[in-house]
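Aim 2 progress. For mannose-6-phosphate isomerase, the working sequence is reproduced below.
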Amino acid sequence: MGSTGSCMYQLNGKIQHYAWGGFEYIPALLGQPATGEPAAEYWMGAHRSAPSVIERPQGNMDLKSLIESAPENILGKATWEKFAELPYLFKILDVKEMLSIQVHPTKSEAEKGFARENEAGIPLDAPYRNYKDANHKPEIMVALSPFYLLHGFLPEAKLKSVLQSVPEFADLSPVFEKEGYYALYKHVMELPQDSVNKKLQALVDRIVPLYKDNKLDKKDPAFWAARAVVNDPQSKDRLDRGIFSIYFFNIMFVQPGQAVFQDAGIPHAYLEGQNVELMANSDNVLRGGLTPKHIDVPELLKHTRFEPVHPEVLNPVVTATKEAIYESPAPDFVVSRIELQPGETYKHTSTAAEILISIQGQASAGKAGELSLSKGHSVFIGFDQSYKIDCTGAETVIIYKASVPLV
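Predicted structure tokens for this construct:
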């Protein structure tokens, strides 16, 4: 392995069939028929709940087991000593229905929460478990289509304006004025359900007809709040308190090729579109609404950063090698985009373990083009591997690459 041998393989990820996913985008990307089952996420990595499979002449093997067979050689000494695993999880997402309001814990808090739930005897696959592992989960997304998401609390002046201009929220304005973000959010998240219903019903009665008549813009929180109600079969009996978050958070619109970084503690939710997502190797999610999954309000409040967020859209830094790098503060991962015109070649020697997926075009990869990187195909490349990618078709090739930002 490593510099003494080849460690480059075709990789097959795992589709996750979450209810919010679309039905066609991921199957079409992978060249598979749609099945009538939602295909929300395509996972590429070594997370124990859904490790990818690598193709080898001597027989297929899951990526987690491959890495464990020679971790220092496959990951590189620096990655292994720092993380003791492949430190990232690479995904393609197709968001048809909005995801839950969520926050991810810091590394230290994830370690404590994971240990606490283990000691309490909560099974790892229990639906009421908060911590699936002991890792933090910073993440970066790069839009593959026009993409909408919620990201962090509105700046103070904007949130004041919302509370004053939405008549149903008039009594919340003094709470925010006197006690700030934490008190406001704690107040609405801890309201008894009958009070939530009573408070939101007038708002729902006002905005749903506008939504059904196509009179709301997607940059208006009323659009997403109405959609949440219309698409929630339980809304007749129980209005979702996640609707408050739609009004309290920034609504971001991101164009294809632009990125957004979500750090620990920043509340967020994806609303609509397709993206590439790269995160620390974790599945820890603390939820606050817009989901049938487990919601733990005290735990959510404990880990949320109650501060104004001024949304930042990240554009990549383009290098001389046709690689556009999306820089973030995360030590666990770095995502980049490689675009090649017909006949062009990308050459590289890996400084850490890499996973690449092709979104468009026909390409070959490896030392001598032995691996496919045509649309929907993925490869795993171990540490210290010299390889090339050739654009072999008549269409521009677009490839996204996950790696570790080690010097």
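The mean pLDDT is 95. This observation will guide construct design in the next reporting period.
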